[in-house]
Amino acid sequence: MVYDEMQHDFYVRHGGKANLVRHNGKPVLAPTQLSHGDILDIGATKLMFVPLCSETFNWSDSDLA
To answer: Long-range contacts for 47-53 (Cβ within 8 Å, ≥24 apart)?
Structure first.
């Protein structure tokens, strides 16, 4: 997963490993932008994407970092 700090966007891409990565049921063959609640399948693992950075909050700008 990649985070673009300037645009505040997250992307997933295929890692080139044996397990196919799926984004909302479709194979990831090129970098794909993620949205809150998207489902990622990596082999037998299923994950829901919940971003912890956005246009209104960025960890690098926080006193919590």
So the answer is: 49/10, 51/10, 53/3, 53/8, 53/10
pTM for this predicted structure: 0.77
Burial state string for 8-40 with b = 16 or more CB within 10 A and e = fewer than 16 = ebbebebeeeeeebbbeeeebeeebebeeebeb
**From CA 20, how far away is CA 61, in angstroms rounded?**
35
CA distance 51 to 16: 24
45 phi/psi in degrees, rounded to 5 = -95, 135
pLDDT at 62: 54
